[in-house]
Amino acid sequence: MLKYRFNSVGLLLLLLIAIVLPFYLADYWIHSLTVALYYVIMAVTWNLLGGYTGQFSLSHHTFAVIGSYTSALLIIRIGTPLWMGIVSSCIFNAFISLLLGILCLRMRGIYLALTTWAFAEIVKSYIRMDFQFTGGDRGLNTPLFFKTIDPLPYYYLFLAFAVITILIIAIIMRSRIGYYIRAIRNDELAAQAMGVNTVRWKVFSFMVASVLASMAGTLYGHFIGLVSPVLGEFSEMAFIIIFVVIGGMRSQAGPVVGTISVRFLAEVLRKWPEVRMVIFASVVILIMRFFNGGLIEFLRKVYQRIRHGKDGESVSVFQKME
Amino acid sequence: MGKTENLFLFFKKWSRGKGIEEIMNSQSRPLLDIKNLVKDFGGLRALSNVSLNIQKGEIRGLIGPNGSGKTTMINLITGIYNISGGAIYFSQDRIDGLQPNVIAGRGVIRTFQIPRVFKDMTVLENMMVPALCQQQSMAEAKARAEELLEFSLLTRMKDEPAKNLSGGQNMLLQIVRGFMKKDLRLYLMDEPFSGVHESIKGIIIKNIKAMNQEKMITFLIVSHEMTTVRNLCHRISVLHKGELISQGTMEEVANDPLVIDAYLGGE
Ligand SMILES: Nc1ncnc2c1ncn2[C@@H]1O[C@H](COP(=O)(O)OP(=O)(O)O)[C@@H](O)[C@H]1O
Ligand SMILES: [Mg+2]
After folding, report:
1. 3-state SS, residue B104
2. pLDDT tens by residue, A63-81
3. C-alpha distances in angstroms, A113 versus A58, A110, A118, A155, B105?
4. HEC profile for chain A?
């Protein structure tokens, strides 16, 4: 109960700040916040897949790439209107994620990771090779969503989409599907023996996460005005995992907090890219080893300590965590 | 020879038929009807030509030395493994070849020899899973879960993650979780008493008896504990090296030379 209240109060506060924030910021920062919101969507949706369902996919970023290219290619090569490009991209990705989801059904752990990684490499290589169609490494110029490069409307677009995504996943996790998904990650065989249709809900989780990621990618293309294979680099996937792990895997606020704070740190350390990667990687190792709950669990403990004081109840709370 | 006698006496001592005539003599078709079941693992025949049927409302014991195929039998009934031959009928429908979740959906639930609970979920959340696979509302499922946990003295642990439970509590949770299935009809339990403290054993027995009497739920219980099996089960089937060597009341089974042979390791 306390946990839920803490989550929703925190998120509401964050949302309020997010709405008024651009009025106090330069365009540069609004732009980088918009990019951060794109990663929030990627992190939150990957958390559904890699966190809650236990499908450690390494092709999540690839769905963003497929999304952005589907829409861009339809608009540029066929001349479809923007909205139709976006809708078609959504449908196409639902189809692709259904196929990949079914292919990965019987795989777990390292096998699923390797298969999805191979899929990601194939897609990236194809885009690089078939440059006459896809634009290769140079990418393709694609129309802007708001026909302006002013970042403010994009910021609100991505904010709205991020909020919707977070809500969708929160609703899923609180519904009976959330129970199925967590049971599947804990023990697939036992879940099945209890009557959970593991095939259906694993594919469902894969599709929901992938389609939302592809929509984020599609909108991202129409925000930058360019689609390129850069979003398909493995480092993109690594960052999504870093955001989730640092923020707190299998929590709803964790990936949001993780993404915003790491992106912020990344901006501050922009002049020293190598140092930055060393810092992030070290933090991930430390969190994996000593603090599985990530930043959100840390904040929760601090909050409890403030609420209950140093003595009394807080002691028992800490003992329970062991 | 002394050893033989002891065991024989032990069997005799506990072998008194339980009032099951009505069930045994009932003319209705069996709830579970296994016909000439065969299971091969590569070159190893784990079950050969096993035919077994269980009437509705019966508590059946399944005993046999280690490696005789008891767990395999449960895995075949619940669809975890594919059968190599024969057929399994549940309430007149053939169920072999169906997915485990479909079989569970028909009301056939099982427990595992080594308890398989959802470790990162709380005790209450564990309970919710089977109920939410049916058309039960959250509130209804929660109320039922709380009632069952109370009956099993697990209320205190309700909000603990299952990984904090002891081995015996895990077994108890695993068993009680199965009762959350509203249309549970056949409950298969794989060694529910092994590694379980006496007090928890008592709770498990209390649960089985209550569910059998109140809801006419049928049980197949694999166990090595002769005292408990005698006390609980109407009839007993004995597996040995993948074959069904004896069937009947504890008295009949205990007097069967084949069974005595099997248990004394007559190779
Ligand atoms: N998955 C499996 N693969 C190969 N052999 C198996 C498998 N499961 C069981 N067996 C073999 O089948 C036989 C019966 O095993 P089991 O059903 O577990 O016996 P019990 O439960 O009566 O102790 C044993 O010889 C065992 O080694
Ligand atoms: Mg066994």
Report:
1. helix
2. 999 999 999 999 999 999 9
3. 6, 5, 9, 32, 31
4. CHHHHHHHHHHHHHHHHHHHHHHHCCHHHHHHHHHHHHHHHHHHHHHHHHHHCCCCCCCHHHHHHHHHHHHHHHHHHHCCCHHHHHHHHHHHHHHHHHHHHHHCCCCCHHHHHHHHHHHHHHHHHHHHHCHHHHCHHHCEECCCCCCCCCHHHHHHHHHHHHHHHHHHHHHHHHCHHHHHHHHHHHCHHHHHHCCCCHHHHHHHHHHHHHHHHHHHHHHHHHHHCEECHHHHCHHHHHHHHHHHHHHCCCCCCHHHHHHHHHHHHHHHCCCCHHHHHHHHHHHHHHHHHHCCCHHHHHHHHHHHHHHHCCCCHHHHHHHHHC
B134:A195 CB<8 A:
yes
Rounded to two decimals, the pTM is 0.89
Confidence at residue A320, expressed as pLDDT on a 0 to 100 scale: 36
Residue B106 touches chain A, beta carbons under 8 Å: no
Cα(B65) to centroid of ligand 2, in Å?
9
Using the mean position of ligand 1's atoms as its centre, give its distance from the Cα of residue B87 in Å.
Answer: 19
| Average pLDDT score, chain A | 90
Q: How far is CA A220 from CA A30, A96, A152, in A?
A: 14, 19, 14
Span B196-206, pLDDT tens digits: 999 999 999 99
Task: Give the pLDDT confidence score for residue A291 in this predicted structure.
Answer: 82
A192 touches chain B (CB under 8 A): yes
More confident residue, B259 or A321: B259
